[in-house]
Design goal:
360 residues, binds fe (ii) ion, 2-oxoglutarate-dependent dioxygenase activity, single chain, metal ion binding, iron
Length: 360
């Protein structure tokens, strides 16, 4: 007799009723966040504090209640997440399941995961509970990924909230796919811009075999461009990942392995591409899967954690050779910072010169 598919309100496995839930997944028909006010004044009117984790990736915003965003703020937030890669919020206790789903739906159709357990009432809410899925399936270096890239329309945004956190450990790390692209040499960029990769759900197929659990729908494989345009920022990024990318198409197996190993190594090892988030209870992270990677740090045993995630389906991935880059956009930001620093230094020198003249 098969084990019960529901434990503590979490549906662990498909049955006749919901064996085709994931078949309803579709792609976004509009790009949330595209064309908003570049200064995002409506959003920042509510922000009381901004902490950038690094110049190009990751920002923590204070003063925002995700359950209370206006439509305009939600649009501007989508754009801000696409620019910053990942955005963090604390104390989102009022973002309950209903509001969590409502927030995701503002940005696109919600994805139902074909294998990961979900909340009994809301199949769009997947449950990451270390009691049910211990973080031992992958080692850290192999677990870097963007969410559900095996789908024809992979995730745009993932909205993850932790309701229970370990006493210590259990951080999540993100790595910047825009910067990964920008730092490649031109010959390698040119090579990769002409390639596609097959992303597979092989890992879940294996888990189906080993666990005996049934899926909530088809486990897809999809072909996507290796260099992808983010439709919100218009910037290029590398779009492969160590968990779901099975092979680079149109090259030999050895060449495919070389390309994937090389890019995977950069994702894992380049510390300057990464930021690390220390979760608190009711913290929320929202990231843009189109242009960055993440991994959980499996260091928190014997503690436990329980998180809930809503995943928004994005567009069918595409590559536009005329796209911009984060590096180019960053030049303008960096120049403005330099001009501000120089003005401050000049003002300080002028003030010191004035003081000297007065005391002379
Ligand atoms: Fe993930």
């Amino acid at each position: 007799m098969s084990p019960t598919p529901v434990v503590h309100g979490i549906v662990l496995s498909g049955d006749e009723k919901d064996a085709s839930l994931a078949e309803r997944n579709t792609h976004a028909t509009r790009v949330a966040g595209k064309g908003v006010d570049p200064e995002k004044k409506a959003l920042f009117a509510s922000v009381t504090k901004r902490i950038d984790y690094s110049p190009k990736l990751g920002t923590e915003l204070h003063g925002i209640k995700l359950a209370q965003l206006t439509d305009q703020q939600a649009e501007e937030l989508a754009a801000f997440i696409s620019e910053r890669g990942v955005v963090f919020f604390r104390d989102q206790d009022d973002l309950d399941n209903k509001e969590h789903v409502r927030l995701g739906r503002r940005w696109g159709p919600l994805h139902v995961h074909p294998f990961v357990p979900h909340n009994q009432q809301d199949p769009e809410i997947i449950v990451l509970d270390s009691r049910i899925s211990p973080p031992t399936r992958f080692n850290t270096n192999d677990s870097w990924h963007s969410d559900v890239s095996f789908e024809p329309a992979p995730a745009s945004y993932s909205i993850l909230k932790f309701e229970e956190i370990p006493e210590s450990g259990g951080n999540t790390i993100w790595s910047n796919g825009y910067e990964l692209y920008d730092d490649l040499s031109q010959p390698i960029k040119t090579l990769l811009e002409g390639l596609t990769a097959t992303h597979s759900s092989d890992i879940f197929k294996l888990l189906v075999q080993t666990s005996g659990r049934k899926t909530f729908g088809q486990l897809n494989d999809s072909v996507h461009p290796v260099i992808r345009t983010n439709p919100v920022t218009g910037w290029k990024s590398v779009f492969i990942n160590p968990v779901f990318t099975r092979e680079i198409n149109g090259v030999t197996p050895a060449e495919s392995k070389w390309i994937l190993d090389y890019l995977g190594d950069l994702i894992v090892k380049k510390l300057q591409y990464q930021v690390r988030f220390n979760w608190e209870k009711n913290s929320v992270a929202i990231w843009d899967n189109r242009s960055n990677y993440h991994t959980g740090v499996p260091d928190f045993k014997p503690y436990h954690r329980r998180g809930v995630r809503v995943t928004v389906s994005g567009e069918i991935p595409y590559y536009d050779p005329n796209s911009g880059t984060q590096a180019k956009a960053w030049e303008a930001t960096a120049n403005a910072i330099i001009a501000k620093q120089e003005a401050a230094e000049k003002a300080k020198a002028d003030a010191e010169a004035n003081n000297s003249a007065k005391t002379a």
